[in-house]
């Protein structure tokens, strides 16, 4: 297949759909390669001995052969199959169908409405294989997610699923970072600590890692509540500190997360992560007021006024520009970035994750990125972005 950017987008979308659990299946067809009698490959996601795999069914004219591969290896094989003979592939996800097709030496990429919007991917299997089981978890009871017997309350089902979903995403991302003897994790703006507890539980009790997890939160009532629950649960290396993200000493942090830290608090968190050279930075941004105000100031004199005069578009523009610049700055400091929707927007509009994975081999401080940042600000009529200002770029 030519047009490598289409293939790269297709492959990246597979990654994202596995991460956000919207993946349903993949099919490859119109084979014109060298292998005799091969017609199609069908790929689904399976759990084998609690490990996620991609199961390939190779359909030949008269027989099927099934082979299971690790996720990374499997995705590599899909890429290879598209370069070596398959002329069409469809990624079926609950969000959309993405089709890559080679027509007359050209590669086209099409996104259609999902034909499987209600498919459960691994959801049903996962109900049995949740990473955070509800039973025998005093903290879930104290956080009012379960009753004393470990039954999830009806009104906490969404929260419980969300906690598991976060942990699943993090569990996949954690595989990409170097293993440490002691994992030091900081959760910025930890609030009531749902995720902080679940992550500590997963790292120490499921992965059996030595982990020290700190929740940073300026609300004293939350900090007291969470510390009390941590003590009652016997989570010795989970603690919550009262203070601001800005003042937190993040040195030595390997994983930094910030979920729904308001407006520029997300920038403060990213700043803390980059300056600590954290291996993994995961933020779910919340509101985007700072950039919204900047765009609003210049909207009348800006070519984009046909969009920004509508509140809803201004809001979306501010979100994309704010998070796009965050990703750009992460890349400037040598982070590989991913941005994806991690939860259906039926649950919450605050559903984008910005992820940075530190790549010590990546070029640091590429001046072209600063040029792009400058041009982007000029285009959108932005004087400054809070994260840019923190680094004095
Ligand atoms: C929307 S809540 C999210 C809580 C939690 N991360 C979650 O996703 O369930 C945001 C929390 O961040 C805290 N917060 C916001 N800005 C902060 C700052 N600059 N320093 C410390 N905490 C902050 C708020 O008090 C609030 O508890």
Automatic annotation (TrEMBL):
InterPro entries: Methyltranfer_dom, SAM-dependent_MTases_sf. It comes from the Bacteria. It holds the Pfam family Methyltransf_32. Keywords: Methyltransferase, Transferase. One of its GO terms (biological process) is methylation. Gene3D superfamilies: Vaccinia Virus protein VP39. The keyword ATP-binding does not apply. Residues 158-293 form the Methyltransferase domain. GO terms for molecular function: methyltransferase activity. This is SAM-dependent methyltransferase. It comes from Arcicella aquatica.
């Amino acid at each position: 297949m030519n047009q490598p950017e289409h293939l790269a987008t297709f492959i990246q979308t597979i990654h994202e759909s596995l991460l956000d659990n919207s993946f349903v299946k993949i099919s490859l067809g119109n084979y014109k390669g060298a292998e005799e009698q091969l017609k199609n490959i069908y790929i689904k996601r399976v759990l084998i001995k609690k490990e996620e795999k991609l199961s390939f069914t190779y359909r030949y004219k008269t027989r099927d052969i099934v082979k299971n591969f690790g996720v990374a290896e499997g995705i590599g094989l899909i890429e290879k199959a598209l370069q070596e003979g398959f002329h069409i592939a469809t990624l079926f996800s609950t969000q959309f169908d993405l089709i890559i097709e080679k027509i007359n030496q050209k590669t086209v990429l099409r996104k259609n409405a999902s034909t499987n919007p209600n498919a459960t991917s691994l959801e049903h299997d996962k109900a049995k294989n949740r990473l955070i089981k509800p039973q025998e978890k005093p903290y879930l009871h104290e956080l009012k997610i379960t009753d004393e017997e470990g039954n999830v309350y009806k009104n906490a089902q969404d929260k419980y699923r969300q906690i598991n979903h976060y942990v699943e995403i993090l569990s996949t991302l954690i595989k990409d970072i170097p293993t440490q003897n002691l994992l030091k994790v900081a959760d910025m703006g930890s609030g009531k600590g749902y995720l902080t507890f679940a992550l500590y539980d997963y790292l120490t009790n499921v992965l059996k890692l030595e982990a020290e997890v700190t929740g940073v939160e300026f609300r004293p009532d939350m900090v007291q509540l969470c510390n009390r629950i941590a003590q009652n649960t016997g989570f010795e290396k989970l603690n919550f500190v009262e203070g601001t993200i800005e003042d937190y000493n993040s040195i030595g942090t390997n994983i930094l997360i910030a979920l729904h830290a308001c407006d520029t608090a997300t920038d403060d968190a990213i700043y803390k992560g980059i300056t600590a050279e954290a291996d993994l930075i995961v933020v779910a941004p919340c509101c985007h007021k700072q950039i919204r105000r900047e765009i609003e100031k210049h909207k009348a004199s800006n070519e984009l006024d046909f969009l920004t005069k509508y509140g809803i578009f201004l809001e979306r523009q501010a979100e994309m520009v704010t998070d796009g610049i965050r990703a750009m700055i992460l890349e400037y400091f040598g982070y590989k970035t991913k941005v994806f929707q991690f939860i259906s927007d039926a649950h919450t509009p605050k559903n984008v994750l910005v992820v940075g994975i530190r790549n010590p081999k990546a070029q640091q401080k590429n001046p072209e990125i600063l040029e792009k940042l400058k041009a982007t600000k000029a285009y959108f009529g932005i004087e400054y972005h809070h994260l840019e200002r923190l680094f004095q770029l």
